[in-house]
Amino acid sequence: MRRVTQKIFLLIVISGLFAFFLHNQWSKHHFAFSSLPSDDLKSMAMFSWLRWDSEHELDGSQYSPLASQAHRKATIRSVCDEHNLTRTSYVLDRKVAAQLYVEHSHKFLYCEVPKVGCSNWKRIILLLNNSLGRTPGDLKHYQVHGSKQLKQLGAYPPEVQKQLLANYTKVMFTRDPLERVVSAYRDKFLHVDDVYYSKTIANQIKRTLGIDPKLNLTFEQFAQFIIQENPSYRDTHWKPMYELCDPCSIKYDFIGKFTTITEDADYVLKMIGAPEDLKYPTIKHHSNDSRTGEDLTIRYLD
């Protein structure tokens, strides 16, 4: 399992994902550092400046959504420049446009990142434009993800897309990538009610890896599949966040984090002039499951 963990870790580092999600507490865990060969450690010199400042980001008594933005945006710019990911002449990728949701009444653009509270953000958008329900709890999971009232930026002509990107408040939320991978596995492959993933996709993965289809898909096998699959066909639930939202080319007005989602979401709602009584909900699809946090993620990766 450790070899798989090393590969996942290096995959994330090389791709630049840590620019947006690295939580400084992860640097304390052996699976992130001590298990890696010295040559690999040399290639990760950027850790010293990619880590979120613990006093600034993690202490709830001092945390400020507004104050966090300068640090988060500077981190993104640094990594984008380091890896030459910023394009001077930019045409919005159709896959990125499909991740951006438009809410016209509040001039709001939200980039959907699965496993980072996206279902609840869709509830917020539907309530903002008075499409469905009166409270977040009125909107069931299938209504949220199947609603035709949700408008994607990709549905508009390129010139309109450009205008909306220039004039609307653009927001994306991020999550530690290792935690997000574990969350995707638990949500999609440990629940038989989601037949598409627990059966169809799981069987595809097992065929790819040459695994007995009668056996349950383990996390280690899922991780191995992510490492070797064709990136062009990667599912959005575990596709790298920078590929989903392209923060190197799109200048987001607010970068939120899953660890501070309540404070960040409240700040965003104030930014766009949402009704004062509208709050970001804490609704979970599988309400009886514990949240995939740091401790649980460590158990999966150890």
From TrEMBL:
It comes from the Eukaryota. GO terms for molecular function: sulfotransferase activity. It holds the Pfam family Sulfotransfer_2. It is an enzyme of class 2 (transferase). Keywords: Carbohydrate metabolism, Glycoprotein, Golgi apparatus, Membrane, Signal-anchor, Transferase, Transmembrane, Transmembrane helix. It is a single-pass type II membrane protein. One of its GO terms (biological process) is carbohydrate biosynthetic process. Its main location: Golgi. PANTHER family: CARBOHYDRATE SULFOTRANSFERASE (PTHR12137). This is Carbohydrate sulfotransferase.
